[in-house]
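Renewal narrative, Specific Aim 1. Our central claim is that a sequence can be written position by position from structural information alone. The example that follows is taken directly from our test logs and has not been curated for this report. It begins with the structure tokens describing the chain, in the order in which they were read.
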């Protein structure tokens, strides 16, 4: 019996795409295999209700489980891709609001980089640590052997290279060793030797004629849960040549690390699938960068990757399941370097791939990279470093000590799990103003396009201004006494319309619901509670914080007043807040270009105290802080003295 089927993906302006599959395949998996990016916060468990498609014709069977769709959704012919099986040839359409379109990615530095803290601190680090990359080439002028000095060829190379670099021991593979004698004599004992510092020893990678000039490149890679960014660097000069970013294709298996860990543990091929997805993402970036610069994969001789502990485990194809189980112990904190060929990465097959070390299960090498790049451990100022995303990763300290923790904020602050939420795509609402009692709404969108949904910064603005103008109260409940058509009832409860369909870039109203507000309240409470836990464990008060560094793409357009008004960030003088951009990528590049910086990253990971908020001695206190923070801005208003309670918008 022939079980071959074809699923045709109907276009929205482009040509239709035909996908081969087998009868009985789950539709979501068919789309994943074809590289079709579609929203799925729960990783296909059927609970988030985001992977919506329309079956136009053909044989598609429902599995009759998963999230319950509204009458309006059913009337539109929508169904969950994760709960559909292919029974024969079929045609489907993916609505715009279900697609993972390319979104704004913070590739490198912060906005107005020349005026921000990261730029200044990165310059300090570069002055403190000279260019001394993990992989480098040195020209050696060797004394020919004689009866007086009959040292073996390899030992002669080792001796000279060690005198120049200070490295104690160098190894050489057999293929290169078999050519060494002829190479040295053919080039009259003057050769260019390339080597990689593996910290336990140096590995000689190439011996070439001294006058042969071939570029040697490295790659710094920031593997975020949501996005991946790669930067090509000239190891001879330290210059950044090109940078690119795109979605982490692991998003097909869930928006957060817990969903992906579940996929790894519950699916027989789960670990392999997660590994393949992140490798495909990185390789696609590498291919684009190499095409842009006219470079060759063999010129890439070393890579430094940073990411949270789960992301690095999946890249190394290690089981991440112990990360989320008591006592929350990862397989490895500082993964040993491996060959690019072992990970199927598009670089020289013998290139070494490094990862910056993690501090704990949920404070990874990306945080260590951020601390390295911003120079926190080199300064006296008490610094709060905050990277807000699916996991809120937070570090508090200075040159004397560092303590870090992670709070599971969930995807709400990035637009996930929100009825009209979206990533930071063109048309995403990133700023909101609401008039008194909610009569008029003004929205600022990315790219000045028609609104398509609310991204994280827009959600924070919305929550702050709705509370300040009286549309919601401090507990996040709608004021049902308001006389405005924007406040209405739906099947899911009360909702407030921000953009009417005729003014939007999608064919429906853009609204924020009671459930959305609850998700946001929990997310902001988790981040603030984690900050309070660090402060309390160190017997410190908010006013003792000299500066707050906000990292990542989320902070790029964040309205600090709004973030404080809802109780996401501590109420401190606004001049203490700085955006530091993609500090993780900066830290990865520092490690790539400086052996000393890579060693410093190892020391930072060992220096930092990891506060596990799920442990028995912390969980109760964290829950108390979390509950207290589920008000706007907090149950204790004394913690937020500057937040206005007179109804004035934070955007005015």
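The sequence written for that structure reads:
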């Amino acid at each position: 019996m022939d079980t071959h089927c074809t699923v045709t993906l109907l276009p929205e302006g482009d040509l239709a795409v035909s996908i081969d599959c087998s009868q009985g395949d789950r539709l979501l998996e068919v789309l994943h295999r074809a590289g079709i990016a579609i929203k799925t916060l729960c990783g296909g468990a059927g609970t988030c209700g985001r992977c919506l498609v329309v079956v136009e014709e053909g044989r598609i069977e429902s599995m009759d489980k998963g999230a319950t769709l509204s009458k309006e959704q059913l009337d539109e012919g929508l169904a969950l891709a994760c709960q559909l099986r292919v029974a024969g040839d079929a045609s489907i359409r993916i609505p715009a609001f279900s697609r993972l379109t390319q979104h704004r990615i913070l590739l490198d530095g912060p906005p107005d980089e020349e005026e921000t803290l990261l730029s200044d601190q990165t310059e300090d680090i570069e002055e403190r640590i000279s260019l001394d990359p993990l992989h480098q080439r040195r020209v050696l002028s060797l004394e020919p052997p004689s009866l007086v000095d009959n040292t073996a060829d390899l030992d002669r190379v080792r001796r000279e290279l060690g005198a120049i670099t200070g490295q104690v021991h160098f190894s050489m593979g057999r293929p290169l060793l078999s050519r060494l004698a002829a190479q040295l004599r053919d080039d009259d004992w003057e050769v260019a030797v390339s080597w990689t510092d593996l910290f336990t020893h140096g590995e000689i990678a190439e011996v070439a004629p001294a006058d042969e000039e071939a570029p040697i490149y490295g790659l710094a890679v920031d593997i975020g849960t949501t996005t991946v960014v790669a930067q090509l660097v000239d190891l001879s000069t330290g210059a950044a040549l090109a940078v690119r970013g795109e979605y982490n294709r692991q998003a097909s298996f869930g928006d957060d690390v817990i969903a992906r860990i579940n996929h790894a543990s519950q699916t027989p091929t789960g670990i392999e699938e997660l590994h393949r997805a992140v490798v495909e993402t990185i390789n696609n970036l590498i291919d684009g960068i190499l095409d842009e610069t006219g470079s060759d994969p063999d010129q890439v001789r070393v890579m430094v990757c940073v990411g949270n502990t789960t992301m690095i485990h999946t890249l190394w194809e290690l089981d991440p399941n112990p990360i989320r189980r008591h006592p929350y112990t990862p397989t490895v904190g500082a993964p040993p370097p491996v060959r690019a060929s072992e990970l199927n990465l598009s670089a020289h097959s013998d290139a070494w791939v490094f990862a910056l070390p993690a501090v704990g299960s949920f404070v990874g090498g990306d945080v260590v990279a951020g601390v390295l790049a911003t120079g926190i451990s080199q300064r006296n100022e008490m610094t709060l470093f905050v990277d807000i995303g699916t996991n809120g990763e937070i570090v508090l300290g200075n040159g004397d000590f560092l303590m870090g923790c992670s709070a599971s904020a969930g995807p709400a602050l990035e637009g996930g799990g929100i009825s009209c939420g979206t990533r930071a795509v063109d048309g995403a609402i990133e700023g909101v103003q609401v008039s008194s009692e909610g009569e008029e709404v003004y929205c600022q969108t990315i790219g000045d396009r028609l609104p398509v949904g609310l991204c994280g910064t827009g959600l924070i603005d919305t929550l702050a201004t709705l509370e300040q103008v009286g549309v919601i109260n401090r507990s996040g409940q709608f004021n049902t006494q308001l006389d405005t058509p924007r406040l209405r009832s739906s099947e899911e409860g009360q909702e407030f319309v921000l953009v009417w369909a005729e003014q939007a870039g999608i064919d429906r109203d853009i609204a924020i619901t009671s459930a959305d507000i609850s998700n946001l309240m929990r997310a902001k409470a988790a981040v603030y509670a984690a900050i309070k836990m660090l402060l309390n464990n160190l017997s410190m008060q908010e006013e003792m914080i000299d500066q707050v560094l906000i990292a990542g793409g989320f902070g790029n357009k964040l309205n600090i007043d709004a973030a404080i008004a809802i109780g996401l960030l501590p109420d401190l003088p606004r001049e203490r807040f700085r955006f530091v951009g993609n500090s993780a990528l900066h830290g990865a590049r520092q490690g790539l270009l400086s052996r000393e910086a890579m060693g410093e990253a190892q020391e930072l990971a060992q220096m930092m105290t990891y506060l596990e908020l799920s442990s028995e001695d912390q969980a109760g206190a964290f829950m108390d802080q979390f509950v207290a923070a589920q008000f706007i801005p907090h149950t204790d208003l004394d913690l937020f003295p500057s937040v206005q309670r007179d109804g004035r918008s934070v955007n005015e």
